[in-house]
Amino acid sequence: MVSWGRLVTGLCCGFALLFSALPALATASVTICVENTEFPPFNYFDRNQSVEPRSIGYDIDILNLAFGQSVLSHKVIALPWNRCLKEVKQGTVDAAMSASLNSERRRDYLISTPYYYLTPSYYYLKSDFPKGVEVQRLEELNHYGSVCGIKNFNYENFGLKPDFHLFQIRSLAHLPEMLTKKRCQFFLARKETLSGTLAINKMEDFYTRLAGITAPNAKPEPFYMLISKNSPHKETIKQLFDAKVDSLNKQGKLRPLLEHHLQLLSQTY
């Protein structure tokens, strides 16, 4: 007859083996913000849902892969970009996705490994410059007219001098009016995101009227996750995210993931 002591010991050992074979369960939760004006194909709203749209995209997929079977659970919230950065800096939000770098961000945040690259470019109406406009330095655009950009966006990696005057507009929705009414003749944007952003804003016809040129002397611009230095989980977030990006990159899976969302955008919008 088996004693109770041996029976209990056996059951405990059995449960220990069972749970050791299960995926690690999340022991803490983190909040990660994306821009609420959308940044396709990296983060944008799923408009196929009848309820309040949820964020989808390349960023969201990588977060699910990085944290899905880890000690951290995560949720994604969409905020105005300036507020997103502010709350990450303060530590009320743990991290922000799809950020380029400048000296201030290098100082204020813990930086992930880069997980994609974009092409700094400038755009103008084809009808304004039928012969095109190509410059040796981006500052030379001022010889042809004023240059617009989105308020609070970082354009440091476009190769502009710090004192360059950039006419700031509040959102991309104002761009057609700014160009057609000649309030600015040029607009700065990342090549890979502009067409998708215009498409989800029902402005794809306007995109066909634009000419786009890669910014001279500008290198492909890396984008990062910015992690709060005040987050109690900052080191775990960085370790899990960097490891997953490195693994996906070595397996050749990052580009197909991006292509999936580019194709999804072209079919949906």
Provide a compact summary of the structure:
The chain is of the alpha/beta class and 269 residues long. The chain has 9 helices and 13 strands.
What does this structure look like?
The protein has nine helices and 13 strands. Strands 1, 4, 5, 6, 7 and 13 form a six-stranded mixed β-sheet that branches. The longest helix has 17 residues, at 4-20. The termini are far apart. It is globular. With 269 residues, the protein is α/β, with parallel strands linked by helices.
Number of helices: 9
| Unreliable sequence segments | 1-24
**Number of separate strands:** 13
CATH architecture heading of the largest domain: 3-Layer(aba) Sandwich
| Radius of gyration based on Cα positions | 23 Å
State the oligomer.
single chain
Task: Assign the structural class, choosing from mainly alpha, mainly beta, alpha/beta, alpha+beta, or little secondary structure.
Answer: alpha/beta
Level-1 CATH class name of the largest domain:
Alpha Beta
**Dominant shape:** globular
Q: State the major sheet.
A: 6 strands, mixed
Protein name: Extracellular solute-binding protein, family 3
Family: Belongs to the bacterial solute-binding protein 3 family.
Pfam families: SBP_bac_3 (PF00497)
Domain Solute-binding protein family 3/N-terminal: 29-265
Write the layout of secondary structure elements.
Elements: H1 4-20, E1 28-35, E2 44-45, E3 55-56, H2 58-67, E4 72-79, H3 81-90, E5 95-99, H4 103-108, E6 109-111, E7 116-118, E8 120-125, E9 147-150, E10 167-169, H5 175-180, E11 186-190, H6 191-200, H7 204-207, E12 210-214, E13 221-228, H8 234-250, H9 254-268
Helix pairs in contact: 2-8
Family: Belongs to the bacterial solute-binding protein 3 family.
Pfam families: SBP_bac_3
Domain Solute-binding protein family 3/N-terminal: 29-265
